[in-house]
Write a structure and sequence with these properties.
The chain is an all-alpha fold. The protein is 79% helix and 0% strand. Helix 3 packs antiparallel against helix 4.
């Protein structure tokens, strides 16, 4: 049996393939941790994290569309659509409170 097909090797490759998901969460975790030592209130930290993530969604949506070969108009629409997802999350957060 080859070492390439071992359970640990497959698991490690799967974790490395998903690393961008972890990296994308780092700025949000940092913003939320700022509230811990009372530098910001929890509400300010959450609101800042939500707005940051919404802008990050817009930028990454437009960037990904450009990398896929789409024109500027289509890329900006993709970014706006992704930003809409963030705004829906913000609205849901406001309704829950």
């Amino acid at each position: 049996m080859s070492a390439d097909h071992s359970g640990a090797g497959v698991g490690l490759r799967a974790m490395l393939a998903e690393w961008p998901v972890v990296a994308a969460a780092v700025p949000t975790v940092v913003l939320l941790l700022i509230a811990v030592p009372s530098w910001w209130t929890e509400a300010e930290s959450v609101n800042t994290a939500l707005m940051f993530n919404t802008l990050l969604l817009a930028g990454s949506g437009a960037w990904t569309a450009r990398r896929a070969g789409r024109g500027w108009g289509a890329s900006l629409r993709a970014g706006a659509d992704d930003m809409l997802i963030g705004l829906v999350i913000i609205a849901a957060n406001a309704l829950i409170k």
